[in-house]
Design brief:
Blueprint (H helix, E strand, L loop, with lengths): L1 H23 L7 H5 L8 H32 L6 H13 L3
């Protein structure tokens, strides 16, 4: 039970890291240049390339950890074969109030 909460926390953190690192990566086309100010960066040209490589590596690691956590959650999940029975019980219960 606690392992599932830890894995869900890992999924949430990885998802946030992926969104942020992809957002901060420099794109060669599209509107990101307009939004972020184009080629004008706080870092120099060389530091911008190094920063892009670091962001790419962070994105790759976060994506791999995310994929592994999803697989772990899938393996550890409960058996949901009785969900249809629960759903039919809920629909019977809701018909009482109609």
């Amino acid at each position: 039970m606690i392992v599932e909460y830890i894995l869900l926390g890992v999924l949430l953190v990885c998802a946030l890291i992926i969104v942020l690192t992809v957002t901060f990566q420099k794109s060669n086309e599209g509107l990101s240049g307009t939004i972020s100010g184009g080629s004008e960066t706080y870092y120099g040209k060389d530091k911008s390339v190094q920063t892009g490589k670091k962001l790419f590596k962070i994105t790759l690691v976060a994506a791999l950890v995310f994929a592994l956590a999803v697989l772990a959650v899938y393996v550890l999940q409960s058996d949901y074969s009785n969900v249809s029975n629960t759903w039919s019980d809920l629909t019977k219960f809701s018909s009482i109030f109609k």
